[in-house]
Amino acid sequence: MKNMSSLISLVVGPQHPALHEPERFVFKIEGETIVDVEPRLGYVHRGIEKLMETKEHTEAIYLAERVCGICNVAHTLSFGEAIEEAAGIEVPSRAKYLRVIIHELNRIHSHLLLLGVAAELMGFETLFMLIWRDREIVMKLVEDLTGNRVISSLVIVGGVSRDISLELIHKMKKHLPKLYERVKQYKKMMEEDPTFTARTVNVGYLSKSKMLELGGVGPTARGSSVKMDVRDFDPYEAYDEIPFNVAVYDEGDSWARFMVRVDEVLEAINIILYALDHLPQGPIRVIPPRAFEGEGFGRVEAPRGEVFHHTIWRGESKPWRHRIRTPTYANIPAVCEMFKGYHLADAPVILGSIDPCFSCTDRLYVVDAKTGKEKVIPYWYIRKKYWKR
Q: Which one of 72, 85, 356, 369 is most buried, counting C-beta atoms within 10 A?
């Protein structure tokens, strides 16, 4: 049993030198070894769920898209599916395939971004530049498909906003196989290069049983042999028609979590090529009603793990309640456990291995100290009390 009085508390954040979002971790360290950690989030709460109640679904989908800029497709897809279930809308088959294509392009972009950043954290600048060079291939294809490089705005309630051209189909079939071969080279490098393996192998280990106990999701969980992927066990859109493999590693360390993402990039390319070859003909959208009554759920596998949208409508043009659950929120308990027993120098790599996104994670509840009940703080009150001019 550690003597807690002899431990040093090291505060990291909220402005972090490696991650460009505000978060605060208080590490309890003995020498260079992390004994315990206390997370502190909530610095960038934006009130999106409450704001949803003031928007019609034609407006709110763009708000959902900005819950996370990198995972924007996952949020519009989850939001759209929740609204479509509540309103009883059936999306056309062609739209489902187009949604899968942009969903997987978004996954590739996110994973390559993270893998490049991870290489930079380790001082592997060459790998960082190579991965981000090839990420540009995906960004250009996303721009050709949607008109935008990052925030795609392709998924809308009832389908998609635009169709794909034959020229772009040929372009994707030309460039994606080349990207596939390059990613295979990076995989070999990550398996063998001592610069990468020394910083990741047997670092940040978490067992399968502990991961299940702490409720980890996405590649974080699959790196600890938890075969849990929404596309597989609860398929949505066209995933029940498209063959793919769920990437799972047994090692449970930071290396395994990064390798899951490498394999998922390769699988995503195969999924897109299959979808392009089997793209159905027909319409790409249906017109949804403006007001309706119902309850709906949207559940998709974002690059970081399961994203969940829950919506309730009571016959008006705006939702009565809309709730969002993001994957990083679910992975925070797991990463805090991963830190324990490892050196402080390992912390950036361990944290990076879950691909954290704190802006989409933040939630805020205000509780009245006298009654113990939640209450809403109006904007004018916050402005008057806390904004100094």
A: 72
Phi, psi of 151 (to 5 degrees): -75, 105
Q: Across residues 335-350, what is the average pLDDT?
A: 93
Same-domain check for residues 241 and 277: yes
Q: Measure the CA–CA gap between 297 and 313, rounded to whole angstroms.
A: 12
What is the spatial distance between Cα 228 and Cα 302, in angstroms, rounded to a whole number? 12
Question: 144 in a domain, yes or no?
Answer: yes
Compute the distance between CA of residue 287 and CA of residue 291 in angstroms, rounded to an integer.
12
- Is 357 inside a domain boundary? no
Eight-class DSSP state of 327: H
Per-residue pLDDT reduced to its tens digit, 121-135: 888 899 999 999 999
| Helix%, strand%, coil% for the chain, nearest 5 | 50, 15, 40
Burial label, 265 (beta-carbon count in 10 A; 0-12, 13-18, 19+): buried
The answer on 309 and 293 residing in a single domain is: yes
Is residue 348 domain-resident?
yes
The range of the structural domain enclosing residue 10 comes to 4-43+362-386
Segments in 22-124 forming alpha helices (H): 48-52, 57-64, 72-87, 93-121
The predicted pLDDT at position 319 comes to 95
Distance separating alpha carbons of residues 361 and 326, to the nearest angstrom? 6
pLDDT in tens, 63-89: 999 888 888 999 999 999 999 999 999
Find the CATH number of the domain harbouring 66: 1.10.645.10
Question: Helices in 310-372 by DSSP H: which ranges?
Answer: 327-339, 347-352
Residue 378 has what pLDDT? Answer: 61
**Mean pLDDT, the chain, integer:** 90
- Residue among 202, 298, 213 at smallest CA distance from 256: 202
Q: Is residue 217 located within the same domain as residue 296?
A: yes
Confidence (pTM): 0.90
Burial 197-232 (b: 16+ CB within 10 A, else e): eebbeebbbbebebbeebebbbbbbbbbbbebbbbe
